[in-house]
Specification:
single chain; alpha+beta; Rossmann fold; HIT family, subunit A; five-stranded antiparallel sheet; 18% helix; 25% strand; methyltransferase; Bifunctional class I SAM-dependent methyltransferase/HIT family protein
């Protein structure tokens, strides 16, 4: 059976002369601060209107404005994008927004609440199959009505998640968070063994990786692919070691599962035998 494709999602963009409701909501509450990115801006209406009002705002859309931003932003807005994407595409957007957000910055997601039927439908203007789905996010909700819900997102290490003393449940603000999804985050290791050493951390507090629900394991490995792309772009390593320590005998020191993504460089293996097979000395 042929897998359905979602190549016409961009056709849901609407051309208008006024600011979107989520844009007005944030503007009236003074939430549009500093350097702003409209991620998935469609035809760029909000970007044009806010630019005329003096805001420092850039638009990105893979179809209409395809130059991917390279710098970080104080505020990121993402309006009605996730509703027209498949789950893996949604996760990719959330990870990219997290990666582009400055430490201490805020992102705002607006999602539709008036969708009556999920799935593909024939677009009434373009006569192409476009996709719609209901989206719920594990972030703080700052507005909801029958048509729209707006979520506020800040990096995981700028929140308090529990009263326990686990450093992975409550990572320090000083640690650099690379990206985040609904169920996991990736941060640079505080004691790196190589340049760009990253930990992927499931948000669920559990010591044994193999006891994580399969869906959350999958989310970690989906993030690993994204992390590899980010590290390759930033550090240009020659290779990677990827590994998990499970239990004390395997070197696990903290009672919270993590996945190590360790960039490797040509010069760091001279005179040594590298690779997973040599994790045990003299074997």
């Amino acid at each position: 059976m042929k897998k359905p494709t979602n190549k016409y999602s961009h056709l849901t963009a609407i051309d208008r002369q006024f600011l979107s409701f989520p844009g007005r909501f944030l503007l009236e509450r003074n939430r549009l601060q500093g350097q702003i990115l409209d991620f998935g801006c469609g035809l760029g209406n909000d970007v044009k209107i806010l630019s005329k009002q003096g805001f420092q705002i850039k638009g990105y859309d893979p179809h209409y404005f395809p130059d991917h931003p390279q710098n970080k932003f104080d505020t990121i807005i993402c309006f009605y994008v996730l509703n027209v994407l498949f789950p893996e595409e949604q996760a990719t957007v959330i990870m990219e927004v997290s990666h582009l957000l400055k430490p201490g910055g805020k992102a705002y997601y607006a999602v539709r609440r008036d969708i009556k039927r999920e799935g593909f439908r024939q677009h009434y203007v373009h006569q192409k199959p476009t996709y719609q789905c209901i989206v719920k996010l594990p972030f703080k909700s700052i507005h909801i009505d029958e048509s729209c819900q707006i979520y506020e997102y800040v990096h995981y290490n700028y929140q308090r998640h529990s009263s326990d003393r686990c450093i992975f449940c409550n990572p320090r603000k000083s640690l650099r968070l690379l990206t985040e999804s609904a169920t996991a985050y990736a941060m640079f290791d505080g004691y790196p063994v190589s340049k760009g050493h990253v930990l992927i951390v499931p948000k669920r507090h559990i010591a044994n990786y193999f006891e994580l629900p399969f869906k959350e394991q999958s989310a970690c490995w989906f993030m690993a692919n994204k992390v590899q792309e980010m590290l390759t772009q930033e550090f240009q390593p020659d290779g990677f070691n990827v590994g998990i320590n499970v239990n004390h005998a395997a070197g696990q020191k903290m009672g919270h599962a993590t996945i190590h993504i360790i960039p490797r460089y040509q010069d760091d293996t001279r005179g040594n035998r590298g690779g997973i097979r040599h994790v045990l000395p003299k074997k």
